[in-house]
Please model this.
Amino acid sequence: MTKRTKKLWITAASSLAVLAALGSGTALTMHAANDVSSVSQTTAPTTATADSTKVSAKSVSGTKQNYTVKYQDKSGDQNATFQKKTLGTSQTANKEVDYVGKTDGAAVKLTNSTKAVSQGVMGHTYVHWNTGKWSITAVTNNADAAGNPQQFAKQINKQLQKATLPANAKSGSVTVYSGNEGDQANTVKWQSGKHLYTVNGEDAATTVKLAQNAD
Model:
């Protein structure tokens, strides 16, 4: 190898090393820019108030494509979560919504002439109805002496008519329980393109309000 050839090899190797370093730095910068660190970088609301209970965002984690916002009330008794997931296709996201179509059951009349059906299954009463792109299911534990399935369903329907659920939803579902669910069983899900949004909470009204307050 001549001195000239050797010099060219060294120069080329040095240039590649510089490019590699620059590329690595660019990737790190892009990754950092994609991270979320505040609620304002998400579609989630900062707060939500329902039945005199206010929950506020306490932590945000993830990326713009997949993030989680956690909420808590002042006393720490109420907890909720707002989550966004980006899936492979819109069809996959749609399947995760758990939309429930028309079902059989005893006819129930809710507020503003909304028609629903009621079914009793394994110690619970399910009142179900559909409105636009959304399916709604209100669940009451029959062991709860204070529980009134129709009244609870009317309360949820009234709340839903006071404020809209996310307008960008292609399909959505609401499943709420009359009792306070410590495991955040109350759920609102909706699909927009390849994105799946999920709100989970211990309290039905608060969970619905978080979804209603979403951008």
